[in-house]
Structure formats: C-alpha cells, structure tokens
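re: ur question from earlier - yeah i can do the single chain one, its not a big deal. heres the input i used so u can compare w yours
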Amino acid sequence: MNRLTLVCPRCRSELNRRGEAAAGTAWSCRGCGFSAAGSAEYVDLLGDGTDGTAEHYSLQWGEEFGFLDFVRRNRAARAVMPAGQLGWPDLLAEIRRAAVTRRLFVYDAACGFGGIASDLLEPGDVPELVYVGADVHHALPLITARVPGLAGQGVLLRWDIAEPLPVRETFDYVICRAALHHTPDPAKTFATLCGALRPGGKIAISVYRRKTRCREALDDALRGVVTAMSREQALDVSRQFTVLGKALQEVQQEVDIPEDLPLLGIRKGRSTVHGLVYHHFVKCFYNPVFGERYSTLVNYDWYHPPYAYRYDVEEVRGWFTACGIDVVDERSIEAQHYLAGVKAGGAGGGAR
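and the output i got, formated as tokens:
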C-alpha cells in the first residue's frame, strides 16, 4: 500500500490510516474530516450507500456461495466461463511477465469475486505489481482473506467504478471483465476508466454480446419480472431456468433446420434441442461441472441485476475510438465480446 496514494473522494486530499479501530483500521482525511472503515487491504469508501447492483452481488459473491473457492477447486468450470476464454488468460500472463522486473499499476474495475486478484497475485513472483480492485458489493473483505498476496501489494476499494478512482496514480493496465454492462451508462463508465489509464497503457474489457431477436425479447421480458424481486426470491426462481436447461440437455434427438432463418437468427444445420432453445429463445444455463447450485447462480446473474446491456462489437469498438484508444486485440464468443486497446501518447502495450 505504500506504493499507492489514496485520496479523499470529497476533497481529493490524501487519505491516511489512523490506527486500529474496533471495526478495523480506519482511514481519514485531514482536509475535510471524511473517514472510511476498513483495513490495510480494504477501504469502504461508500459507507452506508448501496443500490440494487450492490445488493445483488453481495449475495452472488458472498460467503454463502464462495465462488472463488469453487473456481479454484474446479478447473473445468473455469474453462467453461468466458473468463477462461477470450483474451483474458493471455492478458494476465502478459501482466505477470511485465511485473517481474518493473513497477506496474493495475486497476481491476468491478473486481467481483476476486478471480483476477487471485490469478495475478497468488502464484507469487510479481514483486513490482501494484493492484487496485474496486467494486460496490459488500463481500470484498472475503477476497482479502482468500488472497493473502494482497498484503503489501494491493488494496480493494468499495467504490463505484462509474466514478473516477480516488487515487493519485494512473495505471499501466485497466481491466473491466464482464461488468461494464451492469453500470447505468456503460459508454460513460468506459470513458471514466480510460481516464485512469496512463498514455501508452492498455485497457481490456468484455461485455455481453447482443443475442437473436427472440432471445433478446424473451430475456428482457423475464428480466423485467425477476429484477423486481428481492435477491432471495430471484435466486429461488432462477433455479427454474436451471431445471429447464438440464431437462433440455437430456433430450438426445437433434433438430435439423433445413435452411437459414435470418429473421430468427438461426442458421441451417443440426442442433441439439438445448442449443437451439438456449442460443435463440431463452437463457437456461445448466452445466454438470457447475451442478444445480452454481448453474442457478449463473442464471441469477443473468436475470436479476438492475442493468444488463448487450452490444454488437461495432458499438463497443466505437467507445475505444471516441476515447483515443487503439484496439490491439478483439475476440468474440457466443456470450461476450473482448476488446483490448492502447491509449495514445505512450510506448504502448502497458510498457512504461
């Protein structure tokens, strides 16, 4: 933490630790008197502030599910997730190589369950890496307990990534994995993240891919019902999508589509029943590696967050252009788009 300067979100004066308090190490601003609870590796800058997104992910990434532990135990589950595909493994390997010999500042915007923090810090041997993770949910302290590598090399901030990060430093890498689409104005949030990037630094994001017409319409109709529920009710009804997905996967026959159906977004060819329904009509995730419990969590993550925008890749590419970011990597899968780019004015590729 001595490598990073936190500033007051109100007056931008430096924040300082002021000793051990009953609820943990407190942070305070000498300029305006602002204070924040936390520890050496965690600072709650939002206090009592919360919203639907924060409440949703406090359950999803909380102690009840222990999702980071689940992913660590199940390498096959990681391979199924978009986080294990697209450009993420290559990017994290690139960061780790660079952080062996030179100081590297990394901002993990919407750090979620701590997967990126774990991948970057837990293998060790990255002495020059300085990591900052930010998210709005209340389960961040669980990450500090499970990623001891944060000690001395990183900090987690309870903070809204749509707002400028309250630190003095700019970053060599800004990462936002599968989270921009959960903010009220993703394009504006992206521009804010670019503001934290130093010239020549690299930003990498992934966002939901727009689906077919029928899938978009039905998902939105169902989402409109589920988002109005409490998180406990939403989790309960999300199991129905899991049950449907599992039942459809048990159907052995295939469907033969004799010609392209462009209005429906369906191509000529053979498909499983589950594949046809899932990709073109309604999300009903089930994977035996995840089992019923974690498959339901995936469906909950799709239907309950207050915001869940989807995009064509051209639109996302336009964000990069508007912010002066040159796209250097672009990949898409059925679920998401991944783009990485370098901010003009530096050496590029995250190099200092």
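The chain is about 35% helix and 25% strand. not sure if urs matches, ping me
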